[in-house]
Amino acid sequence: MKIGVIGGGQLGRMLSLAGTPLGMNFAFLDPAPDACAAALGEHIRADYGDQDHLRQLADEVDLVTFEFESVPAETVAFLSQFVPVYPCAESLRIARDRWFEKSMFKELGIPTPAFADVQSQADLDAAVASIGLPGVLKTRTLGYDGKGQKVLRSAEDVAGAFAELGSVPCILEGFVSFTGEVSLVAVRGRDGETRFYPLVHNTHESGILRLSVASSNHPLQALAEDYAGRVMQKLDYVGVLAFEFFEVDGGLKANEIAPRVHNSGHWTIEGAECSQFENHLRAVAGLPLGSTAKVGESAMLNFIGEVPPVDKVVAIADCHLHHYGKAFKDGRKVGHATIRSADLPTLKARIADVEALIAKA
Ligand code: AMP
């Protein structure tokens, strides 16, 4: 089976690493000359709106999936005429736009921060008057790793904030004083079967995910599964979906969903019986889903900007390096390590050992 992937970054690369043993081949459509998935499949180098190359991709593959959600809606609609596309166009339409996303959560009875649509500075002033400060102004689309957002704490922050974010459609959210951030990686097959990985605790630095630690018997697991299940059913979703939550007052507030494999699920490559990448491929290909059970304790530490010396990383017991083969650049995710152990104290010690390498790098 040949899988077409829109996007050729590290997520595409890891999809190929998981799918190759299942007998799958891959083609990646990505305009970047140095797309890092190109080492693991065919690289169709073209813009996402280039219909000739989209048609070529559709003709070559059995189905198309995505490694990022900011795909133009026209691209998805165009491909869908010729080849099955998972997850469906509607899932992408909702997940790529924070207003649609939060409106859907509200409709499904899933708690969110207070939010308002902002199309102008006057809208922002009105939204601040009703939601209050502090708040977070975010562009509705194309935001990632903390980009395209601004925390508003004072009237001075509010003045001109709409223009600062580019005078594009935005959403204002009430600032959530959360006790933690967790994410749930879920997968739904073509037949509607749904499975969930354990909730993961996430720590960010400068808006970028740094550390994910998989939990055991988290008290909010069932609630998170209930919320994710509602979303996947509503969208008739097929594939892996990641759901990010704020933990607050012993409950959850929905932050966002990602209609794809997710950075906070990378630990599953070595830390779960079947990884998020394999389960995504199983789902879109109509294969039975694999077990989402955790194997021991697991964490994922991102390498941002540069990868520490390979010999030092792999010298740490049960530490598994993933080097994406990308040029090193500040703020860029260039690799990660899965760190495992039989118990939590050992896991923490090993995480500290890898963090010490990052500090030295
Ligand atoms: P996002 O791109 O929406 O995932 O936001 C990136 C990070 O900013 C989140 O992981 C949080 O740490 C923080 N953040 C986003 N929205 C809010 C909010 N409404 N209240 C407090 N912190 C937020």
Automatic annotation (TrEMBL):
Q: Which reaction does it catalyse?
A: 5-amino-1-(5-phospho-beta-D-ribosyl)imidazole + hydrogencarbonate + ATP = 5-carboxyamino-1-(5-phospho-D-ribosyl)imidazole + ADP + phosphate + 2 H(+)
Molecular function GO terms recorded: 5-(carboxyamino)imidazole ribonucleotide synthase activity
The reply to whether Electron transport figures as a keyword in the UniProt entry is no
Q: What is its EC number?
A: 6.3.4.18
Identify the residues that the record assigns to the ATP-grasp domain, covering every copy.
102-285
Question: What InterPro entries has UniProt attached to this entry?
Answer: ATP-grasp, ATP-grasp_carboxylate-amine, ATP_grasp_subdomain_1, PreATP-grasp_dom_sf, PurK, PurK_C, PurT/PurK_preATP-grasp, Rudment_hybrid_motif
Pathway assignment reads:
Purine metabolism; IMP biosynthesis via de novo pathway; 5-amino-1-(5-phospho-D-ribosyl)imidazole-4-carboxylate from 5-amino-1-(5-phospho-D-ribosyl)imidazole (N5-CAIR route): step 1/2
Question: Is this entry keyworded Nucleotide-binding?
Answer: yes
Q: Give the domain of life.
A: Bacteria
The entry's ATP-binding residues are: 98, 138, 143-149, 173-176, 181, 204, 255-256
Q: What class of enzyme is it?
A: ligase
Task: Write the record's keywords in alphabetical order, separated by commas.
Answer: ATP-binding, Ligase, Nucleotide-binding, Purine biosynthesis
Q: What family is this protein classified in?
A: Belongs to the PurK/PurT family.
What PANTHER family does the record tag this protein with? PHOSPHORIBOSYLAMINOIMIDAZOLE CARBOXYLASE, PURINE BIOSYNTHESIS PROTEIN 6/7, PUR6/7
What does the annotation say about its assembly with partners?
Homodimer.
The UniProt function text for this chain reads: Catalyzes the ATP-dependent conversion of 5-aminoimidazole ribonucleotide (AIR) and HCO(3)(-) to N5-carboxyaminoimidazole ribonucleotide (N5-CAIR).
Q: What name does the UniProt record give this protein?
A: N5-carboxyaminoimidazole ribonucleotide synthase
Q: Give me the gene this protein comes from.
A: purK
